[in-house]
Amino acid sequence: MTKNSGYAKLYLCVLCGFAVSKKMQLKNDNKIVNISSYLKRMAGVQPYKRAVVYPVGIDEYKRVAYSHLTFLQLDHESDCYAHGLEKAGIRRGTRTVLMVKPGPDFFSLTFAIFKVGAVPVVVDPGMGISRMLLCLKESRPDAFIGIPAAHALRILFPKYFKNVKTNITVGRRWFWGGLALRQIQQIPWQSYDAVKTTSDETAAILFTTGSTGPAKGVVYTHGMFDAQIRHIKSHFNISEDEIDLPTFPLFALFDPALGMTAVIPDMDPTKPALVNPEKIIEAIINQGVTNMFASPALLNRVGRYGKSKGIKLPSLKRVISAGAPVSPSNIERFASMLCGDAEIHTPYGATEAVPVISISSSEILSETGKLSEQGFGICVGRVLEGIEIRIIKITDSPIEKWSDSLMVSHNEIGEITVSGDLVTRQYFENTRADDFSKIKDGDMVWHRMGDLGWMDKKGRIWFCGRKNHRVITEKGTLFTIPCEAIYNNHPKVFRSALVGIGSPPKQKPVICIELEAGDKRKNKKKLKKELFELAIKNVLTENIETILFHRAFPVDIRHNSKIFREKLAVWAENQVN
Description:
Elements: H1 6-15, H2 18-29, H3 37-45, E1 50-58, E2 64-70, H4 71-88, E3 95-99, H5 104-116, E4 119-122, H6 129-139, E5 143-146, H7 148-156, E6 166-169, E7 179-180, H8 181-184, E8 202-207, E9 217-221, H9 222-235, E10 243-246, H10 249-252, H11 254-258, E11 261-263, H12 277-287, E12 291-294, H13 296-309, E13 318-321, H14 328-335, E14 343-345, E15 348-350, E16 353-358, H15 361-373, E17 378-383, E18 388-392, E19 414-419, H16 431-437, E20 438-441, E21 444-455, E22 461-466, E23 471-473, E24 476-478, H17 480-488, E25 493-501, E26 508-515, H18 524-536, E27 546-549, H19 565-576
Parallel strand pairs: 1-11, 3-4, 3-5, 4-8, 5-6, 6-7, 10-11, 10-12, 12-13, 13-14, 26-27
Antiparallel strand pairs: 1-2, 8-9, 15-16, 16-17, 17-22, 18-19, 19-21, 20-21, 21-22, 23-24, 25-26
Helix pairs in contact: 3-4, 4-5, 12-13, 13-14, 14-15
C-alpha cells in the first residue's frame, strides 16, 4: 500500500509513558478539522491553476473540447452553493444524498456540503436500483440533491425517502417541486466560513459495494479524510503541480485537496471494463496527465490496446490501481506504455480503510509476480507508515476484545486486521456489522478486512482471497487466489474462480474458467485436459476434480473486477447437479 511499527515501537511507547500518549491522542481527536479547508488553502496557494477539467464536446475539427474551473473558481462556486444550501435548510449534520454525474457541479456541491458541515450520503448507482434504494433507506437522508433521473427515482419509490425535507435538482426541475440548483446559488460571491467541525465528527457516509454481502454504510469522519489525504500525499510522493485522471469518481474528490488538477475522463464510470481506450489515452496525452487511478478492469483494457499499438505515455509518473487483485500480466501490459521510472502502484484497502498497504510494479515484475503464479497469493506489499497490520486466526464469529493470542505466526494464512488514523471505527447504525468487523483494543479499534493473507519475513502481506470465499473440504481448506493462479497460467484462460458446492466441511471444490475473448469457441475438451494436467502438478489444486467453462463472470459494478463467486457457486451447482 512501509513496514508496520511492530512490537518494538509499541513497547517503547509503553516505556515512555503510554498515559501521556493517550492523553495527547484524546486531545487531537477533538481538534478542529473540516476537509473543505484543503480547497480553501489551494485557492490561496495556486488560485489560477486548473482544478477541474472536463470534456464538453467535439469541435469542428473533431478535437475534444474541454472546459475547466480554477482552484479559485471552484472555491468561490462552492462558497456560493454553501450559502444557498444553508438557506435551503441543509446545515451541520444534515444527511444529504448526492447523486450527480462527475463534473464541476459534483466537485462544487461536495465541498459546499463539507463547508456547511452536512453529511453527504454516497451510494454507487451501479449497484442496481433495488440495492441502492435499500442503502438510501438505511441512511434515512434529510435532503436530496440529484440530477432529474435521480429525482424521478425518488418520486417512483417514495417510501425510501420519507425523511427527506429538502430537494434540490441539478438540471431541469420538472413536476416534483423543491428547488433548482441555480436558485440556491448565491450571487454575487461572498466568502463562506466553513463550519468548525471536529476531527471525530461525521463527514460522510459511504456505502460499500456489497460484493460479499449486504452493502453497509461506512462512517467517515473529517479526521479520517484528513488522514487519508496525508497518507496518500506522503506515500505516493504527490506534488501540487500534478494532473490526475481519476477514472473512479469518488477518488476524484481527493484531487482538489491534494492540489492536483482533476481531468474528468469521457467514460461511463459504472462500466470501466468497457471503456474506450482511445479516449483514456487521448486525455492522458493531450492534458499531460501525471497520475491516473484505474481499476484492474480498465487497466487491462487500456493496457491491451496500448501494447498492441506500441503507444507510450511519457507524461505519466504513476498509475494507481485498486478495487481488486491486479495480476502480474495485467501490470506488465500497461507498464509497457510507461517511460523512465514511472511505476504502477497497487494499494490495498477497503471502503472501511484505504490505503493501508502498497507495492509497486518494479517489485511485482522482478520478484513477487513469479511467486504469485506459483500459488503464493498476490503480494500487496508493505504497510504504510503509521498503520498497523496483524494477521489473526480465521473465524466467522465476532471478536469482542483484542488479545495477542488471536495472532498467527509468520507464513500462516489468517484474516487481515488493520488499525490506524484512516481506519473507520463504525458503520452507520449497524451494530451487527460492527460486531463482526470491529475488535476493541482499549481506545483503539482493529478492523477485520474480511480478507485472508499471510506475512512473509520481509514484512510483506500476501493476499489469498476473501474469507467468505474459502472452500472447506474434507481434505483441507482451499483459498481462492492461490488456487486460481495455477489455472490462470494457461494462455487461453482470461481468469478463473474457485467456488465450493455444498456445506463446510464437506464442500466440493469447483474451478470456473472464463476464456480469453478469442478462445471462447475453441476445443474445450482438449483445453480441460490441459488444465487438469496443470492442476495435478500442484499440491494446492491436485484434489480439484471439476472444471466448468463460463461465458462471462458476474463482477462488481464499481470496478468491474471483483468476481461474484456467490453467484458462480449457484450456477456451478446447477451445472454439476
